Amino acid sequence: KNDSANECVRDKGPLPRGTYTIGPAFFHPRTRAWTMRLMPYPENQMCGRGAFMIHGESSSHPGEASDGCIILDLPYRKIIAASSDKILVVED
Asked: What is the separation, in whole angstroms, between the first and last Cα of the chain?
């Protein structure tokens, strides 16, 4: 699941390595409150993947909430949303 060798595997691999801008928190109909979009820098190699977000875990299917997104508990999402640092760097 978190193996960077699988970053090009759609709906299974982790977020592709690169730099992202973290968008403002919003309510998403599926991932709920305090969801934030991750916008990749143009130079990222995205492998045809996209629509990555930071959001919470699924209460009905724990461990299955992510298709490559970053899953964090609510207190951490609130800290990120309140931070002035909106750059995320994903490395191997």
From this structure: 13
